[in-house]
Specification:
Elements lengths: L5 E6 L2 H6 L4 H7 L3 E6 L5 H8 L3 E3 L8 H18 L3 E5 L1 H13 L4 E6 L9 H17 L2 E4 L2 H9 L31 H10 L7 E6 L8 H11 L6 E6 L11 H9 L3 E4 L5 H7 L2 E4 L8 H8 L4 E4 L4 H4 L7 E3 L4 H13 L1 H18 L2 H16 L1
Parallel strand pairs: 1-2, 1-4, 2-3, 4-5, 5-6, 7-8, 7-10, 8-9, 10-11, 11-12
Length: 386
């Protein structure tokens, strides 16, 4: 293979390069590719360039529907592709996918790959559903390879007839980037960080800690989780809820009563994001993930790798990782009674939950090590180039 084959990786915002694809661009560079990253501006860019040892170009994409700005970004991408002449353009996240694939097709880039890691349309109805479906179809029509990052997401795309099935492929067993098993291993933890985190949350070994990680928005199921927790407090006085993630007031904000509950309930601990999610996971009694839509959620891999018992919604992505009553517990989306019942069962049956967590941990170590996923993607790149 020509060592100067060029890949352009595009995400809408740089935080996706930092967290969702961490290490992947550097790996491809180490394996002979010339890699260029593109995203909107953000405080993460310098750190991403240092970590990946790859250049970055800013294109001011937005996560909202902004037609005029989108046309400007489309033109900027076209100019970049004309200059850079990439062999592969590989996009990730919805807006980057739409603009990146359209620009790549206009510029006749031969290999145009879009990774699907969740679909916003899955939780919409009416006009917005039809609009988002049209956008996805346009993205996939511009791509010549569409990679859903889970088999359940693949099934949904087929059921909605979003593209020609010949374009579709799940890489390995799923996941966009796998998991760093060295990071998510208690034996590699820093004792000083553990002590600092315990102090910051007032940790008490006699308490029950329910943890959830992700954006604090409605479609992550935060409303149901907070409402359920309010009820659990009446029967379990030593129960705590830890929410790790940022509030998003522009996209899908939480209602005021839930915001107030998070702010004012002394048993709810809010962490405004952290670089040390693994430490919080290791301290949790249960990891509860009530999301309404996912692609292939990394937080389930992370919790599973650390052996923390999982209770999650029965949705695409989640069900690829957690099998009900075998590697964790599932509940129907939005069903607060089921969430409460699953948590109550888990707290009353810790040994059963421990056994399920162990089985999940074994699966993750077998199939989702990030080097396994990176090598699978690398082989796809090489095959497509040849």
């Amino acid at each position: 293979m020509n060592l100067q084959k060029k890949i352009i990786r595009i995400t809408t915002v740089p935080i996706s390069l930092k967290y969702l694809l961490r290490g992947q661009m550097h790996f491809m560079k180490e394996n002979g590719f010339d890699v260029l990253m593109i995203s909107a501006d953000g405080k993460e860019i310098n750190e991403v360039m240092a970590n990946e040892d790859c250049p970055h170009i800013i294109v001011p994409m937005t996560r909202k529907i902004t037609p005029f700005k989108d046309l400007v970004c489309l033109w900027k991408l076209i100019k970049i592709f004309i200059t850079e002449k990439p062999d592969i353009v590989h996009t990730h996240t919805p807006k980057a996918g739409l603009l990146g694939m359209m620009a790549a097709k206009i510029c006749n880039v031969k290999i145009r790959i879009h990774t699907v890691a969740g679909l916003p349309l899955m939780v919409e109805t009416g006009f917005k559903f039809r609009l988002l479906k049209f956008i996805e179809k346009l993205t996939y029509a511009s791509a010549n390879h569409v990679w859903p990052n889970s088999f359940s997401l693949l099934d949904y795309i087929k059921a909605q007839r979003l593209t020609n099935e010949k374009k579709l492929k799940v890489i390995s067993k799923g996941s966009s980037n796998g998991i760093d098993l060295n990071r998510f291993s208690i034996k590699n933890f820093n004792e000083e960080i553990i002590s600092e985190i315990k102090k910051s949350i007032g940790y008490n070994a006699n308490n029950i800690y329910i943890l959830s990680i992700g954006r604090l928005v409605k479609d992550k199921g935060i409303v149901e989780l907070v409402e359920t927790f309010k009820g659990l407090q009446y029967t379990s006085k030593n129960i705590k809820l830890i929410l790790v993630g940022k509030f998003e007031m522009e996209l899908d904000p939480l209602p005021k009563n839930i915001l107030d509950e998070i702010k004012n309930n002394p048993n709810i601990i809010h962490i405004d994001w952290t670089a040390h999610v693994e430490y919080y996971i290791s301290l949790a009694t249960l990891f509860v993930f009530p999301s309404h839509r996912e692609g292939f959620p990394n937080v389930l891999l992370q919790s599973g790798a650390l052996g923390t018992p999982i209770i999650c919604s029965s949705i695409a992505g989640n069900v690829d990782i957690v099998e009900n009553n075998t590697t964790g517990l599932l509940f129907n989306v939005g069903d607060t009674l089921q969430i409460k019942n699953r948590i109550t069962f888990a707290l009353n049956n810790p040994e059963i939950m421990k056994d399920m967590a162990l089985r999940l941990k074994e699966n993750i170590f077998c199939f989702y090590n990030r080097e396994t996923i990176w090598n699978a993607i690398l082989q796809e790149y090489k095959t497509l180039i040849h």
